[in-house]
C-alpha cells in the first residue's frame, strides 16, 4: 500500500478534526463535540488528550470531514504487496494437552540486573526424543505440576517462544522461553503469585515439564530477506523479537540459514520500567554495533525518562516521537509491524499512527485493517 506524502511547510495552515471518546459513568461514549486544530498544534493536542485519559477515535483533514468539493481528499493508492504467506507448512498442535511432550529443563537463569523490578527468567528445555519443532513467532503451552483448588490438574498457559527454530544451542533440539513471574495483591491485600509463571521461574535443571504445541501463525516472520521489520515490545513481549533478531543477526544462526540473509531494516522499540529490566541487552547492543545499517534500537524506560509532557516515557510515547518516520516505512509494502506485550500500549500507538496518517490525508482506521489483511500488521497482546 503506497500513500502519497503530503507536503509540509512552516506556515502550513491545514486543519484537522479530532474525534474523541471519554468514559462517563463506566461507559465509553463518543463525544458529540469534535475538536478542530491546526497542523502545527496537532501533536501537542493529541498529547493533552491522552494525558486527560480520553482516547482519539479518528483524525481527518478538515476539508475531508466537510466534503469540500474544492479540495478533494487524498486517495489511498494501492501498490502490489508481497503475496500473503502460505502458512500450510507451519507446524501446529504436534502435542496436545491430553498427550503433552515431556521436556527436560536444561537451564533457568535470571535476565535482570541488580535493581530491577520483579523477576524474569530465561528457561531452556531439551526436546530430544520427540517431534516438537517450531518456527519463529510461535508459542508453546506449559502445564504446571500440581492441582488447582478443586483438585483438578492446572490448566496450561501459553508462552511466546524466545528462540529460533534451531534453538539456543543451534542443534534444533531445544526451545527457550522468557518468563516473568506474575505477582499482584488481591482485594484483601494478600500477595498472589502466578501458578505457572512461579512454577517455571522456580524449576530446576533436570526437571521434567509437560509441553504442548506449538501454536500460532499470527506472529510469523516474513521469509523476504528485504523486508523491513518494526518491533514494538514491552517486558517479556520481547520473546518473539529476540527470535527474529537472532535469525537475522546472530552469526551461528546465519550459518544455519544459507537460504535467508536479512538485508532489510529492523527497528526494535522496547519498553521497560527501569534500565536493569532491559532484557537481552548485550545481544541487542552487539547487533547494533555489528549491523548499524540494518538494526535500530529505541528504548522507553518509564521510571527514568520523561515524555514531552513531563510524564513517564512509555513505548507509545516513543512511537509518537517517531510516528512520521514509522509511517513512512509502512508506506513500503515490504514493511511488517509486530507488537507483543501489554495491551495498554495499543491505544497510544493507534493515536500516533492516526496522526501520522492524517498528515498525508489518510484514515488510519481504514489503513490498519488493510495492513492486517495484507499480513503486515501482527499483534499479540495481553
From TrEMBL:
The keyword Cell inner membrane does not apply. Its main location: membrane. It comes from Synechococcus lacustris str. Tous. Belongs to the ferredoxin--NADP reductase type 1 family. This is Ferredoxin--NADP reductase. Residues 13-62 form the CpcD-like domain. It is an enzyme of class 1 (oxidoreductase). Its EC number is 1.18.1.2. NADP(+) binds at residues 160, 180, 236, 272-273, 302-303, 341-342, 380. It is a peripheral membrane protein. It catalyses: 2 reduced [2Fe-2S]-[ferredoxin] + NADP(+) + H(+) = 2 oxidized [2Fe-2S]-[ferredoxin] + NADPH. GO terms for cellular component: phycobilisome; plasma membrane-derived thylakoid membrane. Pfam families: CpcD (PF01383), NAD_binding_1 (PF00175). One of its GO terms (molecular function) is ferredoxin-NADP+ reductase activity. CDD domains: CYPOR_like_FNR (cd06208). Keywords: Antenna complex, FAD, Flavoprotein, Membrane, NADP, Oxidoreductase, Phycobilisome, Thylakoid. Residues 61-80 have a biased composition (Polar residues). It is found in: Cellular thylakoid membrane.
